[in-house]
Design goal:
The protein is α/β, with parallel strands linked by helices. Helices cover 52% and strands 14% of the residues. It has a 7-stranded parallel beta sheet with strand order 3-2-4-1-5-6-7, with helices on both faces. The chain binds guanosine-5'-triphosphate and magnesium ion (MG).
Length: 253
């Protein structure tokens, strides 16, 4: 069994990608299950085999502890960590080859609190990977792109798992724009030129130095453009996951 956590900023397309990639794997005759780890979601574009909302109820936490929605989400994240053995048992009983895990809407709940890495670590002892989403529309500006590069590096630093980077919702941009962002992810010269061309003053200086820091640490990684609406890029995404998790083999034999 392989476990894939889908992580990204709020609204970056995690749930839709879980749905679309899950369906795509099913059509490719792979044995897949989807898990919802977001206690705050009301509607999902897929039917999860395991749902954290069966373990914690945000509305109940808000009422019982007089919390706001964010306070309740923080508490829910910790309560999920407490239930990790039960959730793991449910996942193991599924006996599927690949498990897609849709994480919290608010990325910081999963990535930047103690409970996230604990959950990632304890949720079965199977091989795991992280898929980090760069929202395509947000990434058009090099300043935003570099900020996301930093966020994805912070996620890597928190989980220390193999990480695949996607440019999500790429159907929303013209192809030239998608190609340009992918180019930034593959070439320091291209990103450097975009920073010089599109930014000035402090933004340019900061972005340039942030880019250099990422390169110095060797944390740059190519983006794979995907769309959950058109299924563009699913083949390349799948190849990348197979490479990091199954040494290039299919998950299901
Ligand atoms: N055009 C387009 N829209 C997308 C795509 N993926 C997601 N969306 C839309 O973007 C919005 C957010 O998508 P979600 O999948 O819910 O994003 P999320 O990261 O799970 O959001 P939160 O869990 O609330 O943080 C929804 O309105 C989707 O319809 C895509 O590939 N293309
Ligand atoms: Mg979601």
């Amino acid at each position: 069994m392989f476990i894939v956590f889908i992580i990204g900023t709020a609204g970056s397309g995690k749930s839709w990608l879980t749905a679309a990639f899950g369906k795509w794997l099913q059509m490719s005759k792979q044995d897949v299950a989807t898990i919802n780890l977001d206690p705050g979601v009301s509607d999902l574009p897929y039917s999860p085999e395991v749902d954290v909302r069966d373990y914690v109820d945000i509305a109940d936490l808000m009422e019982r502890y007089h919390l706001g929605p964010n306070g309740a989400l923080v508490m829910a994240a910790d309560l999920v960590a407490d239930q990790i053995e039960e959730i793991t048992k449910e996942i193991e009983e599924l006996q599927t080859d690949i498990v897609l895990v849709d994480t919290s809407g608010q990325m910081e709940l999963f990535a930047f609190r103690a409970s996230g890495p604990y959950i990632a670590n304890e949720l079965t002892k199977e091989p795991k990977a992280i898929v980090y989403l760069y929202d395509a529309v947000f990434s058009v500006n090099p300043l935003n792109y570099v900020s996301n590069l930093f966020l994805s590096s912070a996620v890597l630093n928190r989980f220390m798992l193999p990480q695949v980077h996607l440019l999500s919702k790429c159907d929303l941009l013209p192809k030239e724009e998608v190609d340009r962002i992918v180019d930034w992810s593959a070439s320091k010269t291209a990103l450097s030129a975009a920073i010089d061309q599109k930014l000035d003053g402090t933004e340019r200086l900061l972005s340039r130095n942030m880019m250099l820091a990422i390169y110095k640490l060797g944390l740059q990684s190519p983006l794979i453009p995907v769309s959950a609406k058109t299924n563009d890029g699913m083949i390349n995404f799948n190849v990348a996951i197979e490479r990091v998790l199954a040494e290039g083999d299919k998950y299901t034999f």
